[in-house]
Amino acid sequence: MNFKTFNSANTILGENALKYLNDIEEKRIAIVMGGRSQQNIIDDIISDLKKSGKESKVVANIKNEPSMGDIVQPLKNVMNFKPDCILALGGGSVIDSAKALWIFYEYPDLKWEDVLLPNPVPVLGNKARLIAVPTTSGTGSETTSCAVMVEEEIQEKRLIISQNIIPSLCILDDELVCTMPNHVAANSGMDAFTHSLEAGVNKANNPLVQRIALTAILDIFKYLPISVNENPGTEKFKEARGRIQLASYLSGVAINNSGTGLAHTFDQIGPKLNIPHGLTCAVLLPYTVEFIGDHPFYKELGEIFGYKEGPESSGKFLSEKIIELNKSIGIPECFGKMNINEKDYLEAMKEAVYSGMNSGGLGFAPKIPTYDEAELFMSEAYYGRR
């Protein structure tokens, strides 16, 4: 029998959804947070939790693109605090780090090599639940079975993938994404866009994934420029930030039930050159989409924007629309316009191509490149179309 299951996190959403934390049963909450910009929110959460009879403690302040070594001290803090709930409040890096902390808190004898892809993760939740509260709109980590960490020695991303690390609960409160800086909104929004577009053509996709992905893509096309460019405080701005938050969540659901694609497969160029993940995907995506060329999902999406069958592939048509979207939110069409040294890029590119061509996820792309083809679209991503 040919059938597929469908998974996502339990979710609370709506105005003041964050207040739901006051009603949870757990009494000891370990908080994993991001930058100082969240401190006021954390202070309010701690105060409210205390009023409802709960003890809480910040156990980690996670930087962007965390490495495996970054959770060593936070794990000690978690072990000492002995929580029955881990609360991750922040972007994808924070939530991914909290997933790793959750694993090693529940199973202290495990090592990184025991849980990194392709190894399984045991069932979690015996000691604590994980609650994810995203403050950025991009990774979809609040509802995915994936955690990404950088291995310091080689500056490459490593993956943990297991349905057992989907957060126990996700809380979406659109007030939390209204303070996100515009450049973060742009980069993370394009990460979500990339997730949905790639999930729709991944070989593991299904009709439900494609409907979810299409909804997210259309909302991002419409609302991301408003989210980035509109004056904060207006109703139009708040609505756009809320719609992108939901689109990011849907994109996470889509990849969790399908997978990503070539822009993510070759995104190792990012950590090698200290380029944020969302920005890396945004720049790579049009060139990988053009490489893939025609695909029924591209055609369906393209027709919404006026594509008609002819000499130009649906992938080429969409790639131009993606570059237009990028430009509308301040993202350049190629890495060469980002003050990245040409020699440094070409050296990192060879390593990224090698890593991508040996990636387990490559086989799920609708069209698999040769080494030469991968180097060509990675070169175009630096120089632009010539």
What would you say this structure looks like, in words?
With 386 residues, this protein is of the alpha/beta class. It has two domains: 11-177, Rossmann fold (3-Layer(aba) Sandwich); 182-383, Up-down Bundle (Dehydroquinate synthase-like, alpha domain), CATH 1.20.1090.10. It is built from 14 helices and eight strands. It has helices at residues 39-51, 72-81, 92-106, 112-115, 182-201, 207-229, 235-256, 262-265, 269-273, 277-292, 296-304, 314-328, 342-357, 371-383; strands at 11-13, 28-33, 55-61, 85-90, 129-134, 146-151, 156-161, 169-172. The strands form two sheets. It has a six-stranded parallel beta sheet with strand order 1-8-5-4-2-3, sandwiched between helices. The chain has a two-stranded antiparallel sheet with strand order 6-7. α6 (207-229) runs antiparallel to α7 (235-256) and α11 (296-304) crosses α12. The longest helix has 23 residues, at 207-229. The chain starts with 10 loop residues before the first strand and ends with a helix.
